[in-house]
C-alpha cells in the first residue's frame, strides 16, 4: 500500500509538472497577447493594412505595448484595426498619437507603430478611442514604382541601342563624326583654323590692350570723353541734335520723294517739260533759233561798233578802261 | 502468378487488419464509458508509461535541443541571423520536431511494451483466464492502457519540449552568450497559441494511436511466443507509420485554421 502511494505521488508530480509547464506556456504567450489583465481597446482606420494579421504586435516608441485583436473591413477604402494595449503603457499615450503599419525588420512580420502626436498636448487615450493613421509606402507600391522604372530603363536601353546602331552604321551627325574620314579631316582642319583664329584673336586683343595702355586717359580726347561729364553732356546733346536732324532730314527726304512722285504723276509745267517730247523738240529748236539770233545780233553789234555814229562812243570806253588799268597798277 | 496471389492476400489481410483495428477502437470507446472503471489500473499504467518514460524523454529532448541548435548555428551565423535562433528552435520544437520525435521514441518504448505484455498474456491464456474469472480483460487491460497513453504522451511531449528548449538555451548560453532570460523571452515572444495548441492536441492522437495499436497487436497476437515478438515489432512499425499519417493530417488541418 505504501509502495502504491509512493507511485501515485510520483505520478501526481509528473502530471502536475507537465500541466504547470503547459499552463506557464499559455500564460506567457497569452500575457504577450494581452489576454490576461486589463487592457485598453483602441481603433485605427487604414486604407491598406499591408498584410497585417491578428496577433501582430503594437509598438509605441519601440516598446511592445499590445497586439492586434481584430481587423475589420469597414468599406472598400477603410479597414479598421482594433488593438488591445497594455493599460499602464496606454495611459501614457495621448489622443493625438498616430498609428502606422510597418514591417518588423527587412523580412519580419508587420507591426503597428504608434507615434506620439505633435503640437499642443492632448488628453490621455481613452477606451474605444480612434487613432489617426498614416499611410506608409507599401512594398507593393515600391515594387510598382520599381517596375515602372525598370520599364523606362528598358525603353531607354532600347533607344540607346538604336542610337548606337545608327552611330555604328554612320547615320546622322554623330555617326558621320565617328565614321566619315573626310568629315574628320574637315573637322581637324576646322579645329586647326579655329586654333589659328584664336591665336590671331589673342594677338589682336594683346595689341588692343597695348594700345589702350598707351592712351593718355587724363589729357586725350578719349580721356575727356570718358571722364569729363560736361563733354559727355555735350556729346549727348550733339547726339540728340543729330537725332533731331536725322528726323528733319528724313522729313525733307519724304517731302522730296512726295514732290518727285507728284511731279511724275501730276500735270504741272515741270512734269510737262519732263515727259512731253514734242515740247522738248520745240524747246530745242527755239534754243537753236535763239543761238542763231544771238550770233546775228553779235554780228550786228560788231557792225555797229564800226558805224560812223557810234564809233566815238566805243573809243571813249576803251580809253577809260586803259586809264583804270594804269591807276590800279602798283 | 504466386506473387500476384500473395500480393492480393497481403492486401486483403491489410484491409482486414484495418477493419479489425477500427472495430477495436470502437470497442474501446464503448467500454470507456461503461462501468466499472478500472481507475487503479489506469493510474498504474499512467505511472509506468509516464513516470518511467521521463528519463528517456528528458535525455532525448535535451540532446535533441542541443544538437539541433549546434547544427543550425553555423548556417544562421552565415546569414548573420543567430539572433533568430530562439525563435527558430522554439517554433521547430514546439510545432513539429518535439511531438513527432518524442512520440516515435515512446512508440518504441510504450507501444512495443504493451504489444509484448498483452501478447504474452494472450499466448499464455492469461486473458482467457481473466474472462473466466469474471474480469473484463478488455476494460482492464486495453481501456486503461489506451487511456493512459492518450493522457501521458501529451504531458511527456510538453516536458520533452521544455527540456529540449533548455538544451538549446544551454548551447546559446555557452556559445552565444545569450542569457536564459533573454532566450526564453525570445521564445515566448515568438510562440503563438497557434503554435502550441494544435501541436498539443495532436499529441493526444499520437498517444491514442500508440496505445491502440500496441493493445490491438498484443491482444490479437497468435502463434505462441514467436507471435509475441511479432506483435511487439509490428506494433512499433505500424504505430510509427500511423504517427506520420496523423501528423500529416494534423498539419493539414492546422494549416486550414491557422494559415
Automatic annotation (TrEMBL), chain A:
Lineage, top-rank taxon, reads Bacteria
Question: Which stretches are transmembrane?
Answer: 12-30
- A Pfam family the protein falls into: MlaD
Q: Which UniProt keywords apply?
A: Membrane, Transmembrane, Transmembrane helix
Q: Which residues form the Mce/MlaD domain?
A: 41-117
Name this protein carries in UniProt: Phospholipid/cholesterol/gamma-HCH transport system substrate-binding protein
Q: Identify the InterPro entries for this entry.
A: Mce/MlaD, MlaD_Phospholipid_Transporter
Coiled coil (UniProt feature): none
TrEMBL record, chain B:
Name its species.
Salegentibacter flavus
User: Which Pfam family, any one, appears in the UniProt record?
Assistant: MlaE
A GO molecular function term, named singly, is: phospholipid transporter activity
Superkingdom assignment: Bacteria
Question: Known InterPro entries for this protein?
Answer: ABC_MlaE_roteobac, Permease_MalE
Q: Where in the cell is it found?
A: Membrane
Membrane-spanning residues: 54-72, 84-107, 146-171, 196-216, 236-258
- Record's keyword terms, sorted: Membrane, Transmembrane, Transmembrane helix, Transport
Q: Is Plastid among this UniProt entry's keywords?
A: no
Q: Is Transmembrane helix included in the keywords of this UniProt record?
A: yes
Classification lineage? Bacteria, Pseudomonadati, Bacteroidota, Flavobacteriia, Flavobacteriales
Q: How does it sit in the membrane?
A: Multi-pass membrane protein
Q: What family, per the record?
A: Belongs to the MlaE permease family.
Quote the protein name from its UniProt record.
Answer: Phospholipid/cholesterol/gamma-HCH transport system permease protein
Q: Name one GO cellular component term.
A: ATP-binding cassette (ABC) transporter complex
Amino acid at each position: 500500500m505504501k509502495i502504491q502511494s509512493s507511485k501515485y505521488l510520483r505520478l501526481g508530480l509528473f502530471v502536475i509538472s507537465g500541466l504547470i509547464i503547459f499552463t506557464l506556456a499559455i500564460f506567457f504567450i497569452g500575457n504577450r497577447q494581452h489576454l490576461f489583465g486589463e487592457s485598453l481597446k483602441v481603433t485605427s482606420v487604414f486604407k491598406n493594412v499591408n498584410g497585417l494579421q491578428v496577433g501582430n504586435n503594437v509598438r509605441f516608441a519601440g516598446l511592445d505595448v499590445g497586439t492586434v485583436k481584430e481587423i475589420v473591413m469597414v468599406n472598400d477604402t477603410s479597414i479598421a484595426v482594433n488593438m488591445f494595449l497594455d493599460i499602464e503603457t496606454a495611459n501614457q499615450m495621448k489622443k493625438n498619437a498616430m498609428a502606422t503599419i510597418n514591417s518588423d525588420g527587412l523580412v519580419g512580420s508587420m507591426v503597428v507603430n504608434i507615434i506620439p502626436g505633435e503640437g499642443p498636448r492632448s488628453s490621455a487615450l481613452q477606451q474605444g478611442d480612434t487613432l489617426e493613421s498614416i499611410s506608409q509606402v507599401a512594398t507593393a507600391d515600391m515594387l510598382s514604382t520599381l517596375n515602372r522604372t525598370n520599364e523606362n530603363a528598358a525603353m531607354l536601353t532600347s533607344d540607346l541601342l538604336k542610337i548606337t546602331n545608327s552611330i555604328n552604321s554612320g547615320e546622322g551627325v554623330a555617326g558621320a563624326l565617328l565614321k566619315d574620314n573626310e568629315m574628320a579631316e574637315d573637322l581637324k582642319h576646322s579645329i586647326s583654323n579655329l586654333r589659328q583664329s584664336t591665336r590671331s584673336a589673342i594677338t589682336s586683343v594683346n595689341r588692343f590692350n597695348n594700345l589702350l595702355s598707351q592712351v593718355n586717359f587724363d589729357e586725350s580726347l578719349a580721356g575727356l570723353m570718358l571722364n569729363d561729364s560736361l563733354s559727355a553732356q555735350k556729346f549727348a546733346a550733339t547726339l540728340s541734335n543729330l537725332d533731331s536732324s536725322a528726323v528733319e532730314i528724313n522729313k525733307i527726304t519724304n517731302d522730296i520723294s512726295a514732290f518727285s512722285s507728284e511731279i511724275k504723276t501730276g500735270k504741272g509745267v515741270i512734269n510737262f517739260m519732263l515727259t512731253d517730247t514734242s515740247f522738248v523738240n520745240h524747246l530745242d529748236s527755239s534754243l537753236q533759233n535763239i543761238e542763231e539770233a544771238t550770233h546775228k545780233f553779235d554780228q550786228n553789234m560788231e557792225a555797229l561798233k564800226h558805224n560812223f555814229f557810234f564809233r566815238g562812243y566805243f573809243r571813249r570806253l576803251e580809253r577809260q578802261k586803259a586809264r583804270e588799268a594804269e591807276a590800279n597798277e602798283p | 502468378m504466386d506473387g500476384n496471389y500473395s500480393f492480393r492476400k497481403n492486401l486483403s489481410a491489410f484491409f482486414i487488419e484495418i477493419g479489425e483495428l477500427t472495430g477495436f477502437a470502437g470497442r474501446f470507446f464503448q467500454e470507456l464509458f461503461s462501468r466499472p472503471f478500472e481507475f487503479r489500473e489506469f493510474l498504474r499504467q499512467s505511472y509506468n508509461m509516464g513516470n518511467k518514460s521521463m528519463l528517456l524523454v528528458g535525455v532525448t529532448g535535451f540532446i535533441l535541443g542541443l544538437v539541433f541548435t549546434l547544427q543550425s548555428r553555423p548556417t544562421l551565423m552565415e546569414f548573420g541571423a543567430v539572433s533568430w535562433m530562439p525563435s527558430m528552435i522554439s517554433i521547430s520544437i514546439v510545432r513539429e520536431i518535439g511531438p513527432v520525435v518524442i512520440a516515435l521514441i515512446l512508440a518504441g518504448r510504450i507501444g512495443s511494451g504493451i504489444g509484448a505484455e498483452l501478447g504474452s498474456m494472450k499466448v499464455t491464456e492469461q486473458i482467457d483466464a481473466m474472462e473466466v474469472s469474471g474480469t473484463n480483460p478488455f476494460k482492464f487491460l486495453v481501456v486503461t492502457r489506451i487511456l493512459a497513453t492518450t493522457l501521458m504522451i501529451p504531458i511527456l511531449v510538453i516536458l520533452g519540449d521544455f527540456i529540449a528548449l533548455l538544451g538549446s538555451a544551454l548551447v546559446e548560453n555557452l556559445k552565444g552568450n545569450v542569457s536564459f532570460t533573454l532566450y526564453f523571452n525570445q521564445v515566448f515572444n515568438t510562440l503563438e497559441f497557434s503554435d502550441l495548441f494544435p501541436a498539443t492536441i495532436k499529441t493526444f492522437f499520437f498517444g491514442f494511436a500508440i496505445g491502440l495499436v500496441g493493445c490491438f497487436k498484443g491482444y490479437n497476437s497468435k502463434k505462441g511466443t514467436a507471435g509475441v515478438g511479432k506483435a511487439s515489432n509490428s506494433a512499433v512499425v505500424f504505430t510509427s507509420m500511423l504517427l506520420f499519417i496523423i501528423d500529416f493530417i494534423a498539419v493539414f488541418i492546422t494549416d486550414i485554421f491557422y494559415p
